[in-house]
Amino acid sequence: MDDGGLSAALDRAERAVERIQRLLSARQPAASGRDEEFRAKVREVVDELDELIREAAV
Known about the structure:
Layout: H1 3-26, H2 32-57
Helix pairs in contact: 1-2
């Protein structure tokens, strides 16, 4: 991966982490349905980070 690609991947990773932080800060004690929605969003962001890490390793 060239420097431009690595930089873009790191930018995407930073945005994903920011989304996780926003989700965590907005999280309020709620019913289990809302908790599952939150967990699904976090899983989605973590999957994206995993993909970015794999791309950066190539």
